[in-house]
Every structure is written in C-alpha cells, then in structure tokens.
Write a structure and sequence with these properties.
The structure is a homotetramer.
Chain A lengths: L3 H11 L8 E2 L4 H4 L7 E6 L4 E5 L5 E2 L4 H13 L2 H6 L9 H9 L6 H15 L4 H16 L5 E2 L1 H9 L2 H12 L7 H12 L1 E3 L1 H7 L19 H14 L5 H7 L4 E3 L4 E6 L3 E6 L2 E2 L6 H14 L5
Antiparallel strand pairs in A: 1-10, 2-3, 2-9, 4-6, 5-6, 7-8, 8-9
Chain lengths: ~300, ~300, ~300, ~300
Amino acid sequence: MPSLQAQLNLACQSIQHAIGVGKVADYIPALARVPADKFGAAIVTVSGEKAFFGDAREPFSIQSISKVFAITAALNRFEQQIWERVGHEPSGNAFNSIVQLEKEHGIPRNPFINARALVVTDALLEGQTTTDCSNQMLELVQLLADDDTIAVDNEVAQSERDTSHRNAGLAHFMRSFGRIENSISDVLDVYCRQCAIAMSCEQLARSTLYLANNGTDPITETHIVNEERGRRINAMMMLCGHYDASGDFAHRVGLPGKSGVGGGIVVVVPDVAAVAVWAPRLNANGNSHAGTAALEALVRATKWNVL
Amino acid sequence: MPSLQAQLNLACQSIQHAIGVGKVADYIPALARVPADKFGAAIVTVSGEKAFFGDAREPFSIQSISKVFAITAALNRFEQQIWERVGHEPSGNAFNSIVQLEKEHGIPRNPFINARALVVTDALLEGQTTTDCSNQMLELVQLLADDDTIAVDNEVAQSERDTSHRNAGLAHFMRSFGRIENSISDVLDVYCRQCAIAMSCEQLARSTLYLANNGTDPITETHIVNEERGRRINAMMMLCGHYDASGDFAHRVGLPGKSGVGGGIVVVVPDVAAVAVWAPRLNANGNSHAGTAALEALVRATKWNVL
Amino acid sequence: MPSLQAQLNLACQSIQHAIGVGKVADYIPALARVPADKFGAAIVTVSGEKAFFGDAREPFSIQSISKVFAITAALNRFEQQIWERVGHEPSGNAFNSIVQLEKEHGIPRNPFINARALVVTDALLEGQTTTDCSNQMLELVQLLADDDTIAVDNEVAQSERDTSHRNAGLAHFMRSFGRIENSISDVLDVYCRQCAIAMSCEQLARSTLYLANNGTDPITETHIVNEERGRRINAMMMLCGHYDASGDFAHRVGLPGKSGVGGGIVVVVPDVAAVAVWAPRLNANGNSHAGTAALEALVRATKWNVL
Amino acid sequence: MPSLQAQLNLACQSIQHAIGVGKVADYIPALARVPADKFGAAIVTVSGEKAFFGDAREPFSIQSISKVFAITAALNRFEQQIWERVGHEPSGNAFNSIVQLEKEHGIPRNPFINARALVVTDALLEGQTTTDCSNQMLELVQLLADDDTIAVDNEVAQSERDTSHRNAGLAHFMRSFGRIENSISDVLDVYCRQCAIAMSCEQLARSTLYLANNGTDPITETHIVNEERGRRINAMMMLCGHYDASGDFAHRVGLPGKSGVGGGIVVVVPDVAAVAVWAPRLNANGNSHAGTAALEALVRATKWNVL
C-alpha cells in the first residue's frame, strides 16, 4: 500500500486542473484579496501521522468551519438544552421561510445555518463580555489544534462586522421572537470574530481529530466532548455541512465535513484521521471547487468513505 | 335631513356597546396605559363644517396612520420614483415571504406594510439629519391640520425604539438587498418618532381633508399634492389601509382609510369630508373595534360609501 | 356637457395607439386565435342609456369575469357561509404559499383567486349534476344581461379542461384539506364551462348593471342580490379584481372592476352605469392593456372615479 | 463477542417498553387495522448470516421504503439524467413552498419526498403500460430479496389510490410545470401499487444487502447497480431517509436508512449487513418509534454506526 503522503500527493496532483475553476468569495475586500490559486491539504491520523501538500501551513479564514468549534463549546456548556434553542435537522425548522426569502434573491449561502450559529453565539455570550467570549473561543481552538499561535484576523473580523446586514436582520428577527437574549451588536461582534479565526490546513485537521476519536484528542488524550456529542456533531456535519450541496458532498466524499467561504473544508474519517483542504475558488454552492475534488480523489484511493 | 352633528351622534350612540370589545395594544407600556374605553369621533367637511363626539379633542398615538403623511411627503419629494422603491400592490411583492414568516408566529400586524414604511422613511432621510427629517414630518402634519400645537409623544417614541427588533430585522434585510441606504439606527429613530405623533380626532380629520379635495386643502386652499397623487394615496388606503382586514373594511365602510394600533382610524369621503374615530380596543386584525363599527354606522346613515 | 356617446368616442379614440401593445393569451389555441387588434367598449347607464364603440357587440371569452357571476350565485344560495369557505381578503389566506410557488415559476395569473373560484364552483355543485350546475350559471348570466342568446364556447371550454393541470393541482390540494367536496373532475368541468361563456361588451356591461344599483337590475327591476351583498361584491372587485395589478387599477381607474385573460374588463360606476371594454392584448399582469387605458381615459373625462 | 443473534436479542429485548409508544398510521383503514404491537427485526450479513427477532417473517406494507427500489430502477435505466429530473438535496429545491403549505396544515409526511417519488415513477412509466411498470418493480424487488413470493397488497394499493388527493395535487402541479409526462392517473396507479408492496423484515434486509456491498448482491453475486450509484443511494438515505427527523436518525443510529409509515425501517451497514425492523406505532415525525429505538440499541452494541 502506498504511504499516506504518497496517497495525498497522488490525489492532489490528479485535481490540479480544478484549482483554476470557480470564484473567490468577494463580499469583503480582505477575502477577495486572497490569491485565487492557493491550494493546500493536510492529513493528521489518530496515531499522529501527518501528510501535507502545497500551501498546507499557510493560514486562511476558516469562516463557517468555526461553527464546528462553536457547537462543541455550546454542547459542553449547555448539553441537551442547546438543541432546544438551535435544532439539528437539515430542513423543516422554524426559520425556513427566511431561507426562502434568501433564495428568492439568489444568495448562495444558507442563512438557516447562520441563524443557528447566531443563536449558538448568543448562548455562549451568556454571563460574560464579548472579549471574554471571543477569547474563550480562540483558546478552545488553540487547545484543539495544540497550537497557541492561532489568531483572529482582525481586518477580516472588522470587514465582516461592517457588512453583516443579513446576519443583523436574522438576529433582530430572532430577537423579536425571543430567541436571542444579548444585544444584537454583541452577538455580531463575537460571531464575526469567530468566523475570522485564521488557520492552516495542518491546524484545521489537527483541531478536528477529536471528532475522529469519539470526542477525545488521540494525541494529548484530552477529553473534549463525550462520544454521544461527538456523534451528534458528525451527524450534523454529514447532513448540513455544505450549504445546499450537502447531498452532493455526501455522495462524492461520503464523510462528515464542514466547508467555509474562505475555501477551506475539513472532513472527519471516524477512527482514522481528519483531513483539511484549502482552495479559495468556490463553486456555485459556496464550497471550495478544487478542495471538494481533492477530497473525492483522496477518498477514492483510501476507501475512507463511510457511505 | 338631520344635521351632520345629529348624524354623528346617532351613529356613535348606536355602537356604544362595542366600546368594551377587543384588546388595547400592549406591546409598549405607554400604549397599554391608555384608558381602554375612550371613544372619540370627528367630522370635518370640505366646506369647513365640523361635528364632534366624545373624546374628539384628546390626542392619542397615531401610529400607522402616520404612513399617510410620510407617503404624501415622499410623493412630493420623489414623485414617481418613490413607487419604484416601494411598490403599491396589496400582495405579490418581493417581501411576502417575510409576511409569511410573521404569520407563522402569529403576529397580527402585516410587516410588509412596515417594510414599505421603512423604505419611505429611508428615502425621506436622504441628505438630512434625523432631527431635521423628524421636524419636517411634524411640520407637514401641523400644516395639514392647520394646528402647530401637534407634537411627538417622546415616551411613546422611545418605547417604540427600544422594542423595534422586528422593524430592525426588516430594515437590515432590506439593507442587505441594497434597498435601505441610511444607517438602520437613523431610519428607526425617524420612523419611531413619526409613529409617536399624538393627534386628536379633530386634528386627524382636518389633516386628511386634502385627500377629499383632489389634493388641495379646501379651507386654506394650500396645494398639498396634485390630483393624480391624491388618487394614488386614496387607492392605497382603500386596498391596504387596514392590515389583513382591508377587504372587510372596504365592504363594511366602503371608503379609503387608514388605521393605527393606537386605536385611531381616519377615512376620506371624496368631495365631502374626512372623518376620524378613536377607540383603543382592537379587533383580532389590529383595527379599532368600536371605531370601525362607528364608521360603518355613520356611512349607512349618510350614504357616504363609494362602493 | 358632451353626450355619453361623444365621451366614449373621445376616450376610445385617444388610446387607439395602445391597441397594438401587449400579448394575447396563448395558453390554449382557441384564445390564441382571436384577432389581436380587436377593440370594443360599451356603456349601459342605470337609466338605460347606451353607448358603443368598435367591436362592442362581438362576443369574446369572459374567463375570470365569470367569477363575479359565480359569487353572485353563491351569495344568494349560501349567504354568509360562502365567505367561511372562501374568504375575501386580498392576501393573508391559507393558500398563499401556493401563490408563491406559482410566482417563482413566473405564471402571471394569481392562483389564489383560482383557488377561491374552485371552492365557489364546488359549493354551487352541491346537490346537482354538472350539467344542471352549468346551465344554472348560464341562465343567471342570460337573466342579468336580459339576453338569452348568450352561450358557452364549447371549443374554449374543452381546451381549458384539457390543460387545467394547475387548477387540478389546486383542487386536489384543497380536497386533501377537506375544502372541496365534489369530484375534482366535476368541479373542473363546471369551472371551465363557466370561464368559456362568450359575451360582448354590451352584454357584459348590461349584466353587471345591478352592481351599480344596490343589487337590483334598474331596467327590469329584478332583485338580484341585496344591497349588502352588492357592496361586498364591489369591494372584492376593487381590492382583488385585477390579479397583482389591483392597486394600479384602483389608482388609474378608481372603480370596482374585474378583468379576464380573454381581454375583457367590466367596471361598475355606483349609481351611474356599468362599462365593459375588450382588447385581447394583455399587459404583464394579465390585464387588457388598451382596455385599461380606455377606462382610464373615460374616467378622467366623466369624473366617474370614486377614489 | 456475543453471536449476531445474541446481539439482536439483547438489543430488541432492551426496547420492548417502547413498542407501546406512538400511533399507528390511520389515513387508510388497511393500515389502521394492523395490530399496533407487532415487532420484528432481521439482520442479513454480506456473508449470508442471518438473525431474527419477533415477527421478523410477517409481511407488512413497505410504503416509502419502496422509494429505494424505485430510485435503484431509475438509476439503472436513466443514469445521471434522473437526478436532473429529481434532485438529491435534503432541501432548497423547486418544491419547497409546497412543503411549507403542508407543514402549515400539520401533515407529518414530507411531500417533497413524495413529489420526487412521483417524478421517478413518471420516468419509469416511459414507454410502457402501468401493468408492465408495476410488474417490473415487483420483479426487481423479488430479485433483490431472492424471493418470488413477494406481492402487492391490493387492498392497501386501492385504499391509497382512493385517498391520494395530496399526491394528485403534487402531480398536477408538477405536470403544469412540465415535470410529469404521463397521465396523472397512471402515475398514481403505479405509485400506489409500489407503496403497497408487502414484505417481511427478513425480505427487506435481504433486498437491500446490495447497498452494503458496493451495489452487488453478495450472496447471488448479481450486479444491481455500480458502486458509484450505490454510494449515491446510501447518501440519499443518510440525508433524507426519515422525513423531518433525518438529522435525529443520523445522530442516534448513524447509518443510511429509509423508513415507511407502515412502521418499517431498513438500514445499510456498509461492508457488513442490512438490518430491517418493524413496529407499527410511529413517532411525531412518522418514523417507527420502537423500530428506531431497536436500531439505536443494536448499533450501540455492534459499533456498526459510521458517524
């Protein structure tokens, strides 16, 4: 059997033609400026083996991937109650008519997921300042990645905050229904800082390894979440992790994962590894075009798919 | 034929049993405190004749009735262009999925109309401060009512502003679609002050007399809007003036009118008069229960209905 | 003052350039074949005076205008109960998500109104055969127009029936919610025959004269509906008579009316007259382009508008 | 390690208290009559080992589980083109406003999935009679289960057909948008017969074993679908297999599966086995209450979950 590194090399080389396809997110200048043809990939296995390709150590904006960390923090703090606030189905929830509103105007990102993420942020803010809440989130990510150099990209955070009208609309609506308790401005501050955390493929893969190991970091043996909560997060990633293309991703890659508009995708291979890829150009559904292709190729070679 | 005053007396006396029916708006304390059994009515004819009943000279919060004055100001300033921003149909517009969202949560007020009003306010703010914009609106109302004692109820304005999450949600959504240009906070400040203008039935009837006279105040002969715009405002009041009960109102009263959650209703009798009523208890659709009944009785007696 | 005929001539001549604008309904061949540049107009006053212009005596397919006759029949048979089945507001009803579905696919006709019309037809079918029910409707129209030569265009009826998938969808949905009681096939048979009644402008104006006269035919003195029901029908026409352009029509024409995709429009001038126009080319909202223009010109000259 | 049979026994015994919870589907008499406290379970492994519990050999109505077989047939006949007709995402498709309509009326079954299934049936009908099409479907199921005693329950089929107003509404709507090509009556005939196929847990588990073995029946070595299509079907079951509770099922059971309102559920354990359970009482989402509990218990013991 070829080595892990060889398999990663082969998979990534086979999809280099895909790197030039798609469009970089340009709703804020700080994202639009990212060189469009960057490409990185990293594997970290539960036994600690690593493999890298291309720009695997260059940090980028994790954006919606941060929702995995936020729900991890919220599950530990609020247990089952967080689901009563948030829900965990791919459709049929209380906010789907806002989804429709969005769709009518052609916005590619699923605001239901944003709506959920804002409620999670609101829950995490309970009883503390925005600074403390943001710091806690960053510290959790540093702990998970076992790397305290990870930081927030302040320019991205500010830029997101300045243009967060859609999220502000969602948050005010939910506030008027009593589903948001803190000030909207505070919720948006924390949420935009969380999305603006910058991480490399290596750090991302490392930081989600606990989800491949029943909730416990297999390297440091730190208990992050219990097995039951780990399964819940994996199920959520499988069913809702890729905006309106979650079904397509489940078919092509067959692994729980989460993508962000910064061009990153992280997937969990239960009992085996975590894999992160980065390629800034997005397909029509807002997922990294070359990143998805690389994961598909890797999974074909390794037979890591669970579906 | 009985005198105008006699007709008003008869109509109002015949519906006194209706005054105790319904529920006062209680979403802000300043409205909830209004004595529930107040009842006033006033007629002002195009020839200057007046008739009053009950609490006809006591000011109350005009709320959504202010939208008639805002659209009057916007029509004069922006002419046809305001319709491109706002639309004028009772249904089938770009924001109806927000309407649905609202309906699913059982909110009785039609936010589509609020969405429209916020865009009008945004247009009026163009090139001026919130203070100047609010003052202009108040001065317009004073001019229309020929009464410079009319004022904003600051407690109501502040209270509305503090609880305006739903309107903030609408405004942020519209901003994210590029339909609002000013800061949301400024738009809400001006909008809440406009809704909090306090007027009596006498002042309200007097202030809408221009709509019964092809756009010109028949007493002072001040030209307010041209005939074409006056017809447009009357058509809008006929089709959309009473939330989800506009069809019912058109059948029972048969006149263009506008209601507010403060319990006021004003109707225009083309070429004849303007009539205002006030009774704080609202029916399930958010319109004054006794007020509607009084107008229905008056119209049956006077044959003023146009339908 | 110019004679009625002179006023009609002037109004119609002033809009002849509009006859070539718009698109004839072509969803069935029998409608698509109608010469696109036909134009007719007819006035019948409550005192029996008549005026004609152009193709005023040529029959055309009345289509949705038939809903005025159906609701007249239903009101007389079921009184208030029909509103419990049908509703009478321009928006905010149980079927608005079907409306939205339709809109997303760009269909110009408001199916809510179709949904309502199908329920009315279902009610009228109660206790009789489709043939008897269709005959009753035709006899009512003949009585109203005082003209027993009026007939159903069988080719149009059959063609409508063959392509009535959308209406079948609406009817089956309503049946699944228990709102339709007869067989869907029977309801569609009767409905399609009703829409295929062929009438001239003269016959149409004559047949709605009772709505200008408190529910009683002013020529034959036949009592058709009571005053209260006549007001209800007029209010419904004012608020919902012209699909998604009812607000625009109320502004431009200022009279209760009903249009059909056959290019006909009938309006009621309370206490004065009924007016029918016919021009097959439709605007984007499915209303006769030249017909609306002619009514607008006539109303400007006669000051017949009530708004 | 305990034997397969011992593990199944333990899992099923541990949830016997759950058998009495929930409500049997009663929209047709033939389903309502099924004894509510039936309970069966069957495992068939890729190596041919079998285990049974309770009423594992008693046939019941498979209902929506039949969609797995229909999509299998359609994939083989139309390849990729079937997805262009049908779509494969858990949300965000052209028919979601019908979903909403349904939800507003509290119907527990997700009609989007029905809408999709009707389009699949329409495709399968292409070029053949309803009898041939129904027979082909039954023959496919007999082949998959390696058991030619499997039959349609004609009483259930007729009963479904007689009450299929909602599906008729969906089909007519789709026909009006050009998405259904055959007669609605034919589509509903075939669809209702397919849902009325009666199978036991043993037959169901056996018939889906190809999905646990990359598309090939591991016992007979019959090639059913290629690996790529097998993954697609598994992904669809994982994301959409359990109405509005697919997220909950993914978390609790962590396997691709499909449930039916007859109380059956089948799940695929990739490379290992297929499992079917049957317990007629349904939870609020329309899935078998005790069946889900049994699968959850079995998966906890066997560690068969992939998430």
